[in-house]
Amino acid sequence: MIAGPLVLRPATRSFGDRPTARQLGRIDPFLLVASLLLIGYGLVMTYSSSAEAGADSGDPWAAVARAAVFAVVGLGLMAAVALLDYSWLGTLAPLLYLLTLGLLAVVLAMGETVFGGQRWVTIAGQKLQVSEFAKVLMIVVLARWFADRHDRVGSPLVLAGAAIVLAPAVLLVYRQPDLGTSLVFVAIFFGIAFMAGARLWQLTALVAAGAGAFPLVWSLLRDYQRARLVAFIDPYADPQGTGWNILQSLIAVGSGQATGKGLTAGTQSPLGYLPIADSDFVFAGLAEDLGFLGAILLFALYLVLLVAALRVAYRARDPFGSFLASGVVAMLGFQIVVNVGMSISLMPVTGIPLPFISRGGSSLLSICLALGVLQSVAMRREGS
Amino acid sequence: MRRRGARGIRLVSVSYVRPRRFAALALAIVVALVLLTVRLYDLQIVRGAYYRELAEQNRVLRLPVAAERGVILDRNRHVLVRNLPGFAVSVIPVDVPTAREADLAERLGRLVGRDPGLVRAAIQGQRLRNPFEPVRVSLKPIARETALLIAERSETYPGVRIDPESLREYVDGTLYAAIVGYIGPITEEELAARRETGYLPDDDIGRTGVERVYERFLRGTYGTREIERDAAQREIKTLALVPPRAGGNVVLTLDDRLQKLLAAELERGVAADQFSQAVGIAMDPQNGEILAMVSTPSYDNNLFVRGITAPELQRLLGDDRHPLVNKAVGEIYPPGSTFKLVTAVAALSEGVATRNTVVNVDRNFIEVGPYKFFDWQAHGRLDFIGGFANSSDIYFYTLAGGHPVTGQRGVGPEAIGRYGRMLGFGAPTGIDLPGEAAGIMPDPVWKEQLFDEPWTIGNTYQEAIGQGYVAVTPLQLLNAYAAIANGGTLYRPHVLREVLDERGTATVTKQTEVIRKLEVAPEDLQLLREASRRVVTIGHAAMPNARLPIAGKTGTAEFGPSAGKDSAGRNLLGFHNWFVSFVPKADDNAPTAQIAMVIFTFNSSKNLCELCLNPAIGISQRVYEAYLGAGTATP
């Protein structure tokens, strides 16, 4: 699938070379500090939400310890990837692509064989992991695709080719079914394409085609997915059904008011009104506990992170690095906006985790992976 | 392809770096975060208090705790109305998914025995009013087993609550329905008017009778219970409880023993086909307390609290004897000869007649121009007592309109109207029962206004003997005679005696109320009491072996058809009897009456026997003697 010559130069040094002191000095401090603070924020929320979940879910400190282990592993992973010259990723991109599709297919097959049983949840957890990593892998693949063709990215063929590269992954994830992650893939695609310089009319045409295909998509949607869309448009249509989640999320957010009810003092989650209070609706719990101020702090950290990541993209030494960073920005930005937007009824409900805050080791690990890539690009920028 | 330049300054643009796209993406990120912030500001700062309240409503459910409705007792604290325990089913609409509403209504309807469509309508109606407040869907209390069935499977009945509730039970429902009335579900209009005072959509409210008039005492004050609950509606703990205050127990002036005696007599008369309908009222003439009030045929008010069925209601509405109407106050009839009292009071007070006024009734009619006016017999010479005791029509024609032969002057229709109104005719007595009629007390002005015709001498003669336009309620007639019996005070009749709290302490005591003092000379009142006594001893209402100094006046009135049958299959006779009476402490014409009573029988049978034409007389005697006993009256 990955046609065309590899314009990336293989790393000038061999794979295991230590980075120079100059490179280490170019670690992006904003990116690093924002990442560390957000990981810390996530640990705090892990404590709060598991304390609110009550005795049933065990000792909150145990949950924090578990999350902390993931954080440490994630930071290690981040460091390791940062030290690695990212051009190796470009070299390995075709392999990574096949690996991604293979993993997704395996999970899909496994998921189907045990469909409907008690182990569904366990298997679902497994699936989620793979699709989380698949997002980062697809960033690499798409970045490579556009980097290889950055001088003729205005051609519709390049864009169409990228779409064709993307399509199998999207379909595999969608079939799991995981609409949220497949939308993240699409967001990554548009993010990289846009930053690579794809013609706006072509992008617009793609969006229009997507909108035109909506009736077809609607017919493909599962009942619960349609219900979520309907509930987004009118949460009161069935206040106890899907709309109920949205209403209760709004109530949680709004009732946080300016400064929140305090950590572990939220009522919506412990009384069972807030569904999936540690992942999909984690933001509602945060806004209830810490209020407007807590949310603003979170947004500020996100803003620093995303702008720093954009700067990394801007200053990258080559198109591949730039597109990698752009892809990470698109992924994180999309997840943030959709997850928060869903909690406050600006977006339909889709199961997309909130970066750093949603519980789940795989999500954190994959983000650390992405941040490691970012730092690798940052360290290897040229110029000052 | 290489970028060069000083720190932070780009000199060469590189083909794959597109500053405008970077700016656009950065801007998009900022705009998105600003949008989210604005939305958050709206939710948390602008509308934060509202959502805080909703979160509290999620957490805290404030439930009304119904107060036990007061019971109703007779004057001797005999229980007439009480409460039986049961369970009520209610629904909190906000907790019912709209998609499951129809199914839930279907299943609940089956369990509580009600049309599922109506159950659903109740839920939908409440959804519009206040979806957080429960609405009762069971019409009548359900059995414990059914309640348990729902409570144990609460997950299949979302939003459904089970609360203890009591069923109003009317002991001797038919006997007291006319007075006690019944309760029923509050209507939308009533709710709108009373919501501020704590009424709930599924409340019952007194619909008629004492239940309605004294709703304010009986209802009590509802309490509230605040519970913390989780999303599955499981109650976690009670946060606060404001206990309800039970309604007051209403003590009526009625005497259950007398009520039963009276009702038994009237029902026996109906059963014997002496008459098809009857009213009996007994009162204490010294203060206006109603001791008994029977309107027969009646209805069982328990039907209404248990949920009356369409055929049952149709049967009651289709009965042309009007069982749902309290005929003691709600219907008006010609008073017949009992009205001679008014003619007499007017003539005596205006000086037109004295006890010695004699009218020679040598024929059973008098003639005015081409018209003849009849008496029921040629009595011969009658003085006042003789005229009243024998109920001579011609005697009272003369007192009212003058005598065409002797030239004796009558008091005239204006005076009769004036004294009639003084005695309480033509206006409601103001008894504490609903649906009271005013009656008609005509005079020339009234006729002129209503018919645009002048009053004639015939009108005067007819009115003198209680025929023609005049119409009264049995209660008005009783009250007028009670005023004669007590020496000239027209009291406001009432059925409330007092209201008791839970410990039996009276919180309200009904005060005796005077409508007016009669402007009638005491000796004239005494003459009327004497004449009334003579009605029984020498006159029209002979009571064999009477052991009490009963005094009274008979009346017969003919109105309505005397052919065909009523809806119960009885002959229509259009012939109705009155006996209105009182019992003084001693046989001495003193204003010491201890009890007064009116009996009205409708469609009385003419042909029982010549001497007992008026069944009301015998009924009165039997009731008095059974109630007072022969010994109560000093000889």
CATH class of the largest domain in chain B: Alpha Beta
Q: Do you know the CATH architecture of the largest domain in chain B? A: 3-Layer(aba) Sandwich
Structural class of chain A: mainly alpha
Question: In total, how many beta strands of chain B?
Answer: 23
Number of helices of chain B: 22
Structurally, how many domains make up the residues of chain B?
2
CATH topology of the largest domain in chain B: Beta-lactamase
Q: Please give the count of helices of chain A.
A: 14
Description:
Chain A has one domain. Chain A is built from 14 helices and no strands. Chain A is mainly alpha-helical and 384 residues long. Chain A is globular. In chain A, helix 3 (60-83) packs parallel to helix 14 and helix 13 (319-343) runs antiparallel to helix 14 (361-379). Residues 1-13, 608-612 and 631-635 of chain B have low confidence and may be disordered. With 635 residues, chain B is α+β, with helices and mostly antiparallel strands. Helices cover 36% and strands 21% of the residues of chain B. In chain B, the strands form seven sheets. In chain B, strands 2, 3, 4, 5, 10, 18 and 19 form a seven-stranded mixed sheet that branches. Chain B has a five-stranded antiparallel sheet with strand order 12-11-23-22-21, sandwiched between helices. The longest helix of chain B has 28 residues, at 19-46. In chain B, a hairpin with a 2-residue loop joins strand 14 (365-368) and strand 15 (371-374). The chains are: A mainly alpha (384), B alpha+beta (635). Chains A and B meet through helix 7, helix 11, helix 12 and helix 13 of A and helix 1 and helix 2 of B.
